[in-house]
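Exercise 3.2. Students should predict the tertiary structure of the chain below and write it as structure tokens, then compare their answer with the key that follows.

Predict this chain's 3D structure.
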Amino acid sequence: MERVSVVVIGGGVVGCAVAAEAALRWRDVFVLEALPRPGLGASSRNSGVIHSGIYYPPGSLKARLCVEGNRLTYAFAAQHNVPHRRTGKLIVATQPEEIGELERLAENGRQNGLEGLELLDAAAVRQHEPHIAACAAIRVPSTGLVASEELVRAYARVAVERGAELVTGARVEALEPVAGAVRVRSTAGEVEARAVVNAAGLFADEVAALLGPRPWRIYPVRGEYCELVRERSDLVRGLVYPLPRHDGLSLGVHLTRTLWGAVLVGPTARYVADKNDYERDREPVEAFVRYARPLLPELRVEDLRPAYTGLRAKLAPPGQPGFRDFVIEADPQVPQVIHLIGIESPGLTAAPAIARHVAARLADVLD
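Answer key:
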């Protein structure tokens, strides 16, 4: 049986970024992607925002890897002609009693190393966003936008150019430790790998469980979007966020003017039972009006039409809110396997930093 250095399970943005980084050092890197092409899951069903790192607890993996990934994502997108734009964003307090919370969030961002944060009063917010209702806002200059699907394709292309093999339609069905390696059986065949990276996104817990009972479980959370009709798209100029939800489930329904000029309203956040449930029992347009009207009082039902949905890989179960950090660690019993579990937002931004972090772990296994 063929033995290779690295098998990456999952061809989303993180898996492809890991493969591109690993292929710089090891010649025989394989990516196994269950779907017909890379990035069809969470990697391309999101807001396409390059996050700053303002939200996450100082010292957490999310904070460190998002701040580093912000810089690396801009550099990668520029080098590989991926559409992107540094837009900045506003995080808005709609009530006077929220201003203290806004100031604490800004201080959190400074502790994470963000520069150039500005606290704006209501008049300054109106200069940026005339239709937004705000008592105050933080302007975050390092936030931006990237064409997420094209970003995934670019990481995949770079990985292949560096010698990696990308195999689609390859759903992993078994992992078996053998002497000095792990036998990986997928619908595309079998291979032995000296190291395995589990970057399977929503299904990373199930991949980990192929080695036996493991402590992680992913709870899918669906996010739904609406879009402003074209005639009303001038209501929003850039990126406008509320203060994040206290339950840690999401950053709240926000307004995103995309690279192509459409304005998205969303995402919502709701636990679902099925990791493939993108459409069942969608929220009505009227709900989006309720969610977004505190930010955009002029919004009407007729201004919106349904858009796409996405699923997030949450580690927090229903009824147990709170921050959960990325899990990036070796398997407790099979150290040749590195698990990436709960890689939700800001995973798109953090992907190149995660890739460097994982490459260092791979070196401990392979060198």
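Discussion points: The mean pLDDT is 97. The longest helix spans residues 347-366.
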